[in-house]
Amino acid sequence: MNNYDITIRYYESAISDFKLSPQRRAMLCSTMDKVAAMHVKHGDHIRARGVYYDVIKIYMDEQLYEEACSAMLRQVEAVLGDSPVLDNSCFSILDECLDNCDKIKNNVAKCKVLTELGLKYSLLGRFAVAVDCFDDVLRLSEDKQLVAVAMQNMGAVKNRLGEFTAGIPWHEKAIKLHGNLGNRNAQGQCFCNLANALTHAQRIDDAAEAFIHALQAFK
């Protein structure tokens, strides 16, 4: 028996004990999260999905919506890792996560979940929903870091949709805000996105200048 199996047996024994005590729900969920993460790490995505399903149910029963949404996002990662073929259950999980996101009372936590949702929807090609998520972050967030990321992702989505001219203002806003916040690496990524958009918009000289700024940001 390898270390992975031994550790899983140890955790599963602890989970059985924690289930007997309602007062130890937090420890139960934490341990289940660790088990699911270990399954993912070792490529056993099917078992990970099952564990996440169980822990999400506990979080929802306890009305811990922030924790439930975070677990749903991790469950999507397990689903995506299970097969190179897109599983439609990804969208069911993401849609459930989006529905419950409004119940998160902490504004920063809500905007972080919305950001991750936007990234996941964008990755899976549901750009309209991704844009709505980033719009919500821009509308709700008072955290400038999250706002900068939302602007960056809005521009990236526009590029992926081929709406390069519409994306240019988003790239420029993200560049400025990342610069003010001292996020040089992120600013460099935005300059690359801007250069790509400018190239497709036939603004070649401006694109070349953006590429130079990107190289400087990455130094």
From TrEMBL:
Domain of life, per UniProt, equals Eukaryota
TPR repeats span 111-144
**Alphabetical UniProt keywords:** TPR repeat
Task: Give the matching Pfam families.
Answer: TPR_12
Write down what this protein is called.
Answer: Uncharacterized protein
